[in-house]
Each structure stands twice: as structure tokens, then as C-alpha cells.
Specification:
It is an enzyme of class 7 (translocase). With about 270 residues, the chain is α+β, with helices and mostly antiparallel strands. The chain has 4 helices and 10 strands, in the order H-H-H-E-E-E-E-E-E-E-E-E-E-H. It is elongated.
């Protein structure tokens, strides 16, 4: 009887897992992602790899719980002692612990260690390609972007609102700080924010008193109208204005970026 039950369980698990994998792949390929940076593609590949392995693990647990509830229920809700009492099964325990250990080691090696090494290698190589430096300052509740290589202290759009614009194909290095540049106060008195650009696949906490960096290469021309994922959003609860702490992002051609830089310099000269 035990072998028959195990066989039924295995068949149900295989069917549910196959259906879940098919559904995941269709969602993934059609509507789930929009990635426009080299680092984002690495992160997306890692997510897809982990999901493909974790789906059968999740379905195993879900099917096990439901199968046990259905198969071993008391038909008339009257508890009865089982004729077979098993305290433990050492082979099941060894298999469970062994597989769990192997999976964790595998996930640590790939994609975690492998992809991090790829990102660091790309970073070192692209740092020699004159990356664009963007200083990002987070304050309650605003993102402020400056371009020190061009002498721009605060980039704004036609409405005077902060905006971030980047050239496609050029490495970008962000320097992230949390403070209020318009008031003098203890730098540790601000709060933690989180610099998140969904379409870039990056998120980095911005901590008072620290300067953190992010490095990436945009590889598609895009803006908020292309996808709402092309924006800067705070992903760390930082007060009542947290949901509205966002800024538009545009990825443009090199020519458009040069024109935008000239426009920003003109606005700055006018004291806008």
C-alpha cells in the first residue's frame, strides 16, 4: 500500500510541476519582465534559473500537504489510531537533508557566485571606457541627480522636477548618498532610502553617512512611456511621502544626451 501511495503521489507531483513550469514560462516570456541593462539581464537569467528549480520544490511541498490531508483523513471525523506507527524514517531524513544541502550549495555557486564574478569582471573592464558619473542624493522625499563631469548640480525637466537621463550603451556609475543638500545638519540624521530602477534590475540601499556605488550599462532606448518600470523609485519605507518618492528616467541616444546636457547647462545658467 505504501508503494502504491508513493506512486500516486509521484504522478500527481509530476503533473502539477509540469503545469506550473509551463505557466511560468508563458508568463515570463510575454508579460512579466522588461529589462534594459546588462546587469539586469544577468539578474533576470539568475531569477529564471532559480525559479525553474524552485517550482518543483514548491509543488512537492504543496502536493504533499494536500495529499496527506486527503489520503489520511478520518472519513467520519472520528480520530482512530493508525495500525502502523512510524517514529522516523532515516532514509527519508538523509535524502531530504542531502538534497537540501546539495541544492543550497548549487544555488550559492550558480547563479550567485558565478553571476557576481561576471558583474565584477564587466565592471573592471568597463571602468576603462570613461563611464558617466551620476551623483544621486536621496532626501525626504526627492531624488536629486547631478552630473559632475558636465558641471550640472541638479538635473530638472521643463516643469522644474528632478529627472534622470542616461545615454544608451555607455557605462554609468552611480554614487548614492542620503542627505538634504539644502540644509545644514548632521549627516546621520537623515533616513535610509533605497535606489531602485526596476527595468535595470538593481536596488541599493542609500544610507546616511555612507557613499555607495552602482555600476551598469543601459542597452535600450526607453522611457517611462515605454514602460512604467523605467523610473527611479524609493523601495525603502522612509516616511509619509515614500510612495511618491520617484523620478522619471529616460535612456536616449548619444546625440540626444548631448543636447540634453546643453539644455541643462542653459537652465543652470538661468538659475532654473
Amino acid at each position: 500500500m505504501a508503494l502504491a501511495e508513493a506512486t500516486v503521489f509521484a504522478v500527481i507531483w509530476a503533473i502539477v510541476t509540469a503545469i506550473a513550469e509551463i505557466v511560468f514560462r508563458r508568463i515570463k516570456d510575454h508579460s512579466m519582465y522588461y529589462t534594459i541593462s546588462s546587469q539586469g539581464h544577468i539578474a533576470l537569467s539568475a531569477f529564471n534559473f532559480l525559479s525553474s528549480w524552485l517550482i518543483p520544490i514548491f509543488t512537492f511541498m504543496a502536493v504533499m500537504v494536500i495529499f496527506a490531508l486527503v489520503r489520511f483523513r478520518a472519513p467520519d471525523n472520528t480520530p482512530r489510531p493508525s495500525p502502523v506507527q512510524t517514529l522516523r524514517n532515516k532514509w527519508y531524513i538523509l535524502l531530504w537533508v542531502g538534497v537540501s544541502f546539495a541544492l543550497n550549495i548549487m544555488f550559492w555557486l550558480h547563479p550567485t557566485a558565478v553571476d557576481l564574478e561576471t558583474m565584477f569582471a564587466n565592471w573592471k573592464q568597463q571602468q576603462n571606457q570613461h563611464p558617466l558619473i551620476v551623483n544621486v542624493t536621496a532626501r525626504q522625499w526627492e531624488w536629486i541627480f547631478s552630473y559632475p563631469q558636465y558641471g550640472i548640480t541638479q538635473a530638472v525637466n521643463a516643469q522644474g522636477l528632478d529627472e534622470l537621463e542616461l545615454p544608451v550603451g555607455r557605462p554609468v556609475e552611480f554614487f548614492l548618498r542620503s542627505k538634504d543638500p539644502f540644509h545644514s545638519y548632521d549627516i546621520y540624521a537623515d533616513v535610509i532610502h533605497s535606489f531602485w530602477i526596476p527595468a535595470f534590475g538593481i536596488k541599493e540601499d542609500v544610507i546616511p553617512g555612507e557613499t555607495r556605488t552602482e555600476f551598469l550599462v543601459p542597452d535600450h532606448v526607453a522611457n517611462y512611456e515605454t514602460s512604467p518600470l523605467v523610473r527611479v523609485q524609493c523601495a525603502e519605507v522612509c516616511g509619509p511621502g515614500h510612495p511618491y518618492m520617484e523620478a522619471p528616467l529616460s535612456i536616449v541616444t548619444a546625440k540626444q544626451f548631448s543636447q540634453w546636457i546643453a539644455h541643462q547647462k542653459s537652465l543652470q545658467a538661468q538659475g532654473a
